[in-house]
Structure formats: C-alpha cells, structure tokens
Automatic annotation (TrEMBL):
Keywords: Hydrolase, Protein phosphatase
Xref: SMART domains: LMWPc
Domain Phosphotyrosine protein phosphatase I span(s) in chain numbering: 3-160
PANTHER family in alphabetical order: LOW MOLECULAR WEIGHT PHOSPHOTYROSINE PROTEIN PHOSPHATASE, LOW MOLECULAR WEIGHT PROTEIN TYROSINE PHOSPHATASE
GO molecular function: protein tyrosine phosphatase activity
Organism (species): Laceyella tengchongensis
Record carries keyword Hydrolase: yes
Protein name: protein-tyrosine-phosphatase
Gene3D superfamilies linked to this entry: 3.40.50.2300
InterPro entries named among the record's database cross-references: LMW_PTPase, Ptyr_pPase, Ptyr_pPase_sf, Tyr_phospatase_low_mol_wt
Keyword Hydrolase belongs to the record: yes
Length: 167
C-alpha cells in the first residue's frame, strides 16, 4: 500500500511547504521515496500557483533542502480520501479542512473516514512539546523557530510511520 502524507496550513507558502520539503528530504535520505507520497496544501486560495514565501526559501536554502517544483494549491474535499495522514499546522487549519470537506463532500464519493481522527495536528507528533500550534512566520517573521519545530516534528513523524507500517 502506498503511504501518503499531506501537510496543510493556511496559505501553503510558509509552514506546510516547509514541512513538505523537510519531510521529502528525510524520506529520501532513508531511501523510502517510493513508499511514501508527500504533498502540501493551503485552506486558503490567495497564493495558489506561487512558490514558497521568500523567507521559507531562504531558510531551506540555508539548510540545503530542496523546494524545487513546490507550488501552492488549495486543500480540497477529495484529499480526505487520498491521503493516509492529513496534518494541519494549527487548530484553525483543521477546522477549515472540516468545513471545506463538509461543504463539498456531497459532490464526491462520501468518505467512510472519521474526520476527527484522520485530520491530525502537527505538534501532536512531538512528544513533550509545549507548542499547541506551529507558529506562522507570515505573522511572526521568525522562519528559524518554525523551521526548528517542523524539523523536529518531521523526524518524529517519520519514525512513527516506519513503526506503523513496518518500514
Ligand atoms: P502559511 O502562512 O499558512 O504558513 O502559508 C500564511 C501565508 C499567507 C497568509 C497567511 C498565512 N495570507 O494571509 O496571505
């Protein structure tokens, strides 16, 4: 079975593309790129088609992590059916995903998935963290803090996925 991971934030230009790029990097390092499909999306549509924010690109360049080809897209109801792990960067992202799903699910094959368990929160993958959300550098300007937290979370997430799927 193909394992798939979707990271979701608001604009898909700061937090979720950082997570996508970092997670791709880790997955490639472990030679698991054929087993784990990775993507990201935003609940908003303002930046659709744009590359990551320049602050995100600067930080990823500094860490020698590729973001080649990443372009913002909007989260859609069908994503609920397509991805094994759907991970929001904060509680608003999760609430917005639910509302997008509930508005559009009538037009698609309705899921048997339980939204309350399949939409997960990124910080919940980090044992012992005091963060309740991934801070949004669009507002904080602190791309370093966001990168550190995302890097830690992606490592824990990969360990968990390897355990859960016997990789
Ligand atoms: P992100 O940050 O959700 O981490 O990509 C944001 C990017 C853009 C906006 C808000 C947050 N915006 O309002 O355009």
């Amino acid at each position: 079975m193909q394992i798939s991971v979707l990271f979701v934030c608001l604009g898909n230009i700061c937090r979720s593309p950082t997570a996508e790029a970092v997670f791709r990097h880790l997955v490639r390092q472990e030679g698991l790129e054929d087993k784990i499909l990775i993507d990201s999306a935003g609940t908003g549509d303002w930046h659709v088609g744009e590359p990551p924010h320049h602050g995100t690109r600067k930080k990823l360049d500094e860490m020698s992590i590729s973001y080649e080809g990443l372009r913002a897209r909007q989260f859609k109801a069908e994503d609920v059916e397509r991805f094994t792990y759907i991970i929001g960067m904060d509680d608003n992202n999760i609430a917005d995903m639910k509302s997008i799903y509930n508005r559009h699910a009538a037009g698609i094959e309705r899921s048997t998935r339980n939204l309350d368990t399949c939409l997960r929160r990124f910080v919940d993958f980090i044992p012992g963290t005091t963060y309740t959300k991934v801070p949004d550098p669009w507002y904080t300007g602190d791309f370093d803090e966001t990168y550190r937290l995302i890097s830690s979370g992606c490592r824990h997430l990969l360990t968990l996925i390897k355990q859960e799927h016997g990789l």
